[in-house]
Design brief:
heterodimer, A: alpha/beta, Peroxisomal Thiolase, Chain A, domain 1, 16 helices, B: nine-stranded mixed β-sheet, six-stranded antiparallel β-sheet, Thiolase_C_2 (chain A)
Chain lengths: 400, 483
């Protein structure tokens, strides 16, 4: 039986560019911005890095295929670089590559970089893409909001929640994230909003209005990882470590098997269960200090609270309205603004989430610092509710 | 010696749900020609953006096949608006209906009487023919034709034996190259000549010649005819011809001008389907198709008529209607105005034809798979069973989902995604047999979609690849019953 990744790898440096409509910057600029912060934080030389993983989703649209964009942007000394892509779990997948390489002993120090340059399309929203030669023949040419919007009515039907109550809980989620984003100097959206604004906004995809949707942003985030021993030798006495790193892609059950009712995300349930086991967490609602979940849309954040076993089945609306996930609640969610307001440069998002947990665990989160956090969870959900990839990471300190 | 009659053994129809108010059309065109108000009465059937002659022909055929399953030897598709000039349109209908590969397809076109000529040919043969006819003729905004045309389809099956509901008694054809209108290759709308000439030299001289020949072959006199079917939207043309031919005034069948409009090549069969749905056994029908000549066909209904009821039928389709008052929307659907749909409409819809070929039964016929090991029904059909408790390899047998009961599991109305008629509605559809398919919804009203809403499958246009002149089709879900 595998022992898992818990405490085998330390994060010794992280960096994150400012997210937003970065008309001033290309993907190489964004990667360098994140890298400079990360390298300085780690306190090592570029030449100490032995391997790299780069995550980018819309390759043709923004950055380009292969290892070259990272290797060339950072002028890396011809070290091996692997380009990975796993929908919205791409950033976490890059981290997974670097972490596993260090854990395997194949290298001592590795870098994971996630980047996305979305605002070079000329239109709002995410770029268009093909789903595959067969899928294009039958699947609807849906948008991301339309894909996730379907959770709304299905969740309301299953839990017998009135749509008006669901919409209010969704609005509460967006209001909370805007309030958090306002305190984050790197966030894309820093304007507080009201519940009424959310409810009055124009419809994007029923039941999602404009303020139920995350920002489409440019950005990059990166991490440098090594063994706990090397971390200590670099002066990081109680380093931040990876407690769990799990990935669960759909296998077609939600898409083609009638057992799924459309109201939850099956892969989140699977990835979360594995991650809690790997990290040794028995009661996530009691043990997690903060979470960064994939709030591409307000309704997604709401339903995954149950999938992550943080809210009881059918209890997410109540928890949200009770402020359980607010900044002053029991488990603050999206303390940095989340996808909603920090922004969602797809390839960077998973690493951006880990960046926030990393800062919070070290007491370096500035105005938005939480008191004494111990375990943070990050969650990505790429694709659509019926065809997706979930990643879950749990981050803590070596001593915990 | 037993008499084994040849004749019609089934009938069906399809009328699209949108009915455009002619009053609204005339109001929109008042600036152009106030006299168009004379045409501003009643409504015309208008295809949704995702319907063309082929999809409507499929629906008409399903209307009769749902009433009585059949494996025809031939499938003929009659239309003057075939989507493809070089690709078997009838063949695609065979796939959409899930008929056997040995069914011989034929496209019949080139004239408004393409369907009646094909019917006459079928009646003169011994094999079983499914004839489905449809037209989605375009007309320029402001033309009289845009008021008088309608979109629709009808189908009949022809065969022999005790199942014959309308026995073939005789027929006659006249060809005469009278060009009262035409549409040349590459043109989107008809060029139409003066109506008085078309009536006096055309209808009033050519139709009688065909009718007399058919009555003589059938051995009946004109006054015996119970139902006189002749398409055409000229004022009183049917009554005038009835008088001229000695047909009883009460035999004239309503050409559905006020409720549907003239559906082109489909119209004679649409009127026939209308009559067969409400007449009695033992009645004589005179069916005429007109266009560069005329076909006349005499039929007599049999006692078997009462055993055949199409799934929806003309009356059913007429009552399944949604009033439409927006002429601009109709013009956009017809491609007569170039509406701005934004950059998302630029998405490339290139088809990988190698893939479309490999998966043709799934895409054309909505054929999924049923695992013979665990019974799980799934779409698409794959080599490995999707049931997490099974996963068996190479156990799936084809199972068509197009006619199976289903309901809405999830849905959205998406105002961001591109569609010629926003919002783009789609969601997961749960089939009663256990399958789940994410698909588009069509022919819905705002606020109509709900979890658990019963839906039926319809074959529709999925994407129009204007760059390469290709259109691809797939199945969509539409609310059952009254639209």
């Amino acid at each position: 039986m595998a022992k898992g990744i818990r405490d085998k790898v330390a994060i010794i440096g992280m960096g994150c560019s400012r997210f937003g409509e970065r008309w001033d910057a290309g993907p190489d600029d964004l990667m360098l911005e994140a890298f400079q912060e990360c390298l300085h934080d780690a306190g090592i030389q570029k030449s100490d890095i032995q391997a790299g993983w780069m995550g980018v989703f819309f390759d043709e649209q923004s950055v380009g295929k292969s290892a070259l964009p990272l290797s060339m942007a950072l002028r890396l000394p011809n070290i091996p670089v692997t380009r990975v892509e796993n929908l919205c779990a791409t950033g976490t997948e890059a981290l997974r590559g670097a972490v596993y390489a260090v854990a395997a002993g194949a290298c001592d120090i590795a870098i994971a970089m996630g980047v996305e340059k979305l605002k070079d399309t000329g239109f709002g929203g995410l770029p268009e893409r093909t789903k595959g030669t067969f899928e294009d023949l039958w699947l609807p040419q849906n948008t991301a909001p339309g894909g996730f919007a379907q959770l709304g009515a299905a969740y309301a039907a299953r839990t017998r929640t009135d749509m008006a109550d669901l919409k209010r809980a969704m609005a509460h989620i967006s209001v909370k994230s805007h309030a958090n984003g306002a305190l984050n100097p790197k966030a894309h959206l820093r304007n507080p909003i009201t519940e009424q604004q959310v409810l009055d906004a124009r419809m994007v995809a029923y039941p999602l209005g404009l303020f139920d949707c995350a920002g489409v942003s440019d950005g990059a985030a990166c991490a440098i990882v090594t063994t706990p021993e090397i971390a200590r030798s670099l002066g990081k006495h109680n380093p931040v470590t990876v407690k769990a790193l799990q990935l669960a892609p759909s296998n077609g059950v939600e898409l083609a098997h009638g057992s799924w009712d459309g109201s939850y995300t099956l892969t989140t349930r699977i990835a979360a269960k594995r991650a809690y086991e790997e990290a040794g967490i028995r009661d996530p609602r009691a043990e997690l200090s903060l979470i960064e979940v994939h709030d591409c849309f307000s309704v997604t954040e709401l339903v995954v609270m149950e999938d992550l076993r943080l809210s009881p089945e059918g209890g997410a609306v109540r928890d949200v309205m009770d402020g359980f996930f607010d900044r002053d609640g029991k488990i603050p969610c999206q303390i940095d603004g989340g996808l909603k307001c920090f922004g969602h440069p797809i390839g960077a998002t998973g690493l951006r989430m880990v960046y926030e947990i990393y800062l919070q665990l070290q007491g370096r989160a500035g105005e938005r610092q939480l008191p004494d956090p111990r375990f943070g969870l990050t969650h990505n959900l790429g694709g659509l509710p019926n065809r997706n990839i979930t990643s879950v990471a749990i981050i803590g300190r070596l001593g915990d | 010696m037993t008499h084994s009659p040849i004749g019609i053994i089934g009938f069906g129809a399809y009328i699209p749900r949108l009915r455009l108010s002619r009053k609204a059309m005339a109001a929109a065109l008042d600036w152009l020609d106030p006299n168009l108000a004379a045409h501003g009465k009643g409504e015309r059937a208008v295809a949704n953006w995702d319907e063309d002659s082929l999809t409507m022909a499929v629906e008409a055929a399903r209307d009769l096949l749902a009433a009585r399953a059949l494996s025809p030897d031939r499938l003929v598709f009659a239309s003057t608006t075939l989507p493809f000039q070089d690709r078997s349109n009838a063949g695609l209908i065979i796939d959409a209906l899930g008929l056997a590969e040995t069914t011989r397809p034929a496209d019949a076109t080139g004239s408004l009487r393409a369907a009646t000529s094909a019917l006459l040919s079928a009646l003169e043969q011994t094999c079983t023919t499914l004839l489905t006819a449809a037209d989605r003729r375009l007309a320029r905004p402001g033309s009289v034709q845009d008021f008088t045309y309608g979109h629709g389809a009808a189908a009949v099956t022809v065969g022999s034996g005790p199942g014959v509901i309308a026995e073939f008694l005789g027929g006659h054809s006249i060809f005469r190259d009278l060009v009262d209108h035409y549409r040349a290759e590459g043109e989107d709308a008809d060029y139409v000549l003066e109506e008085r000439w078309a009536r006096d030299e055309g209808y009033l001289k050519i139709v009688p010649a065909a009718v007399k020949g058919a009555l003589a072959q059938a051995g009946i006199s004109a006054d015996q005819v119970d139902h006189f079917i002749l398409p055409g939207t000229m004022a009183k043309i049917q009554a005038t011809l009835a008088g001229k031919l000695g047909l009883r005034a009460d035999s004239v069948v309503d050409p559905l001008a006020a409720s549907v409009g003239d559906t082109g090549a489909a119209h004679a069969l649409l009127m026939l389907a209308d009559i067969l749905g409400r007449t009695q056994p033992g009645r004589l029908i005179l069916l005429v198709g007109y266009g560069q000549g005329a076909d006349a066909i005499v039929l007599r209904t049999t006692p078997a008529l009462s055993d055949f009821i199409p799934a929806t039928g003309v009356a059913g389709w007429l009552s399944r209607r949604q009033a439409e008052n927006n002429y601009l929307k109709h013009m956009s659907f017809s491609g007569m105005v170039n509406i701005h749909f934004g950059m998302r409409a630029e998405h490339d819809k290139r088809t990988a034809h190698t893939v479309a070929y490999r998966k043709r039964d799934m895409v054309n016929g909505l054929t999924g798979g049923r695992c013979t090991a665990c019974g799980c029904v799934q779409f698409p059909r794959t080599r490995a069973c999707v049931n997490p408790a099974c996963g068996a390899i190479d156990t799936q047998e084809p199972l068509r989902l197009a006619d199976e009961a289903a309901s809405v599991k999830t849905f959205t109305e998406d105002w961001l995604g591109f569609t010629p008629c926003p919002p783009l509605a789609y969601g997961n559809v749960q089939f009663a047999n256990g399958a789940n398919v994410m698909m588009e919804f069509t022919d819905i009203q705002a606020g109509q979609l709900a979890v658990g809403l019963p839906v039926r499958m319809v074959f529709r246009l999925k994407d129009d690849d204007e760059k390469r002149g290709f259109r691809r089709y797939f199945w969509k879900a539409t609310p059952q019953g009254e639209g």
